[in-house]
Design a protein that fits this description.
The protein is 41% helix and 15% strand. The protein is of the alpha/beta class. It has one domain: Alpha-Beta Barrel (TIM Barrel). Helix 1 links the parallel strand 1 and strand 2. The two termini are 13 Å apart. The relative contact order is 0.16. Bound molecules: phosphoenolpyruvate (PEP).
Length: 247
């Protein structure tokens, strides 16, 4: 059986003082029997978060990594560097990176490959825009995005975590209904099954305005194995309520 994962994506938020308070509150409030939990923090705070999370049972995550191994790529951060800070997960292909940094399906697939080669589990984000959903293209879009990752990563695909994040639901307060999300997750599950005999190990998270109120219904769907949480991960009480809903 797949263990549920609740991963917080802080995006470009935080400060040394605020992080200490937030991580302290989340670690102190973690239920005794909890699902897997991770915090994906901005890169400058990796060392701080690594120290604060030590022994907490919460894993450290990054929000991106370079598709290159090393060298003349000013401003980029390699998978090996992340690994030195104890990073266990790295988000790749978040819609904000696809949109604002023009990341292609192929680049996202390479990032996943770099992460895996360094022993980091990529949380690979895919999802359709509102215009694509309204044009009836949801399945075609997410299948295309996933196909690129399968193509580049071959049998290693069973080592990734996938996150279905409809772009229209991210940071908007609009959530896919549990049925809408489950429908897409089931499509992704069968695409993964066709690519790997170990597909049943692959966690598929839902992301998009998941919060303390809607989490239980979403997480109750058979193919929803956890959540990638943006806004609600910045408030300890809300994030802890989602973790409890996943138990
Ligand atoms: C995200 O950033 O991946 C996300 C799902 O954000 P939010 O929960 O704020 O919609």
């Amino acid at each position: 059986m797949r263990r549920k994962l609740i991963a917080g994506n802080w995006k470009m938020n935080g400060s040394l003082v605020a992080n200490q308070e937030l991580i302290g509150a989340v670690a102190a409030g973690l239920p005794v029997a909890h699902c897997a939990v991770a915090l994906c923090v901005p890169s400058p705070y990796l060392a701080q978060a690594q120290a604060l999370l030590a022994g907490s049972g919460i894993d450290l995550g990054a929000q991106d990594l370079s598709c290159h191994e090393s060298g003349a790529f000013t401003g980029e951060i390699s998978a090996a560097m992340l690994r030195e800070f104890g990073v266990r997960y790295a988000i790749v292909g978040h819609s904000e990176r696809r949109q604002f940094h023009r990341e292609s399906d192929a680049e996202v697939a390479q990032k996943a490959q770099r992460a895996l080669a360094a022993g980091i589990t990529p949380i690979v984000c895919i999802g359709e825009t509102l215009a694509e959903r309204e044009a009836g293209q949801t399945e075609a879009v997410v299948k295309r995005q996933l196909a690129a990752v399968i193509h580049t990563n071959g049998h290693c695909i069973s080592e990734i975590v996938l996150a279905y994040e409809p772009v229209w639901a991210i940071g908007t307060g609009k959530t896919a209904s549990p049925q809408q999300a489950q429908q897409v997750h089931a499509v992704l599950r069968s695409q993964l099954a066709a690519a790997s005999e170990h597909a049943d190990r692959i966690g598929i998270l839902y992301g998009g305005s998941m919060n303390a109120v809607n989490a239980a219904n979403l997480l109750g769907q058979p193919d929803i194995d956890g959540g990638l949480i943006g806004g609600a991960s910045l408030k300890a009480a809300d994030f802890l309520a989602i973790i409890s809903a996943a138990a």
